[in-house]
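Re-run with default settings, no changes from the original entry. Doing this only to confirm the output is reproducible before filing.
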Amino acid sequence: MQSLNSNNGCSANFIVISLIPVLFFISILLGYTGLIPLNVPFHGFIIIGFILFIFMLFIKHNANYGICKMRLNSFRMEQELKSQLSLHSLDIHNENKSVLDIAKFLNHYYADIRNDNFVSVASSIFPMLGILGTFTAIAISMPNFSVTDTQALDNEISLLLSGVGSAFFASIYGILLSLIWTYFEKRGLSKIEHYFSDIKVAYSAQIWSHEELLIHEHKQNDLKDNRFVAALKETFNLDFIQALNEQHLASFKQIIHESNQNFVQISHHLQFVSLQLKETLSQIDTSKSAIEARNDIEKTLIDFTIATRSLDKNVKLFSSELDNSLHNTFQKIDFEIGNIVVKLADFATHVSLQNREIQESINKHHQMVANGAKVK
């Protein structure tokens, strides 16, 4: 920010604001010197002079004086404003403008032109100083009422009344200064507002308005929404989902078909094994010594038949309930097949043992028959 402390060129504003207070003080001075018929004591003259001095210190913080300093520094302010406009430029639809807030920039640029704390108390401090000066003058001019002579007492009362009368000049002066300050402050604020308004109008073509930015923001939001909807449509394409479902359904049917074929093959193998077992049983049935083995084999066949029925039931249940989880179904199938395989292994082991016992029994029988023939 450029320095705004120079007071050159604003002497006319200073003189205009201080003209009436200075004329009033001159009249007080003339009354003190006796050139005009005003009874102003020395202490009254000093009090009013002190109030005028305070007022002079406040003048440079008045808005009517501040507008002069603003106009003197308008060239440097415009150079800084152009730099900030370029710094905050924004391209929208191939058009370049700035998004700078001119009001905020001006308030910040001219922030040190006057002290706002002094401004806030100025209108009230001058009447207070006037009242303070009045009571001070009365206290100074208070006579000595300890006299006993009537004539002397009358003189003292006359002095008191004349001192009170002159003391009120301080209050009048303080109220007058407050009115003058308020008038020039309001007038200066009006000029500052008009000055800022002219600057905004002059640079309005280079700055995006609030309405234009809102329209651009809404357009950008609509564009983002349209892109988002298009992405959703592309992601959740119904044709793609339908084709994907058809592929999954075809794969699922193929798995079921292959599983059924596998179960049919297992069933054929089981039937073949069952036929072989039946043939073995028919051969074993010719020997009377294999009755106990036959009973064990029949018991094993009953268990095998129950397992086969359970397998067939599970196969039918699997085919009818396609909506169930394949994972659980295959676990059940694996469990049942595992049981069947275990039972088949036990059965094969048992049959092998029985065949061995039957073979040994048959050999013993043949040996006994051969030995009997030799004995004869």
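Residues 150-202 form the longest helix (53 residues). Strands lie at 89-92, 95-98.
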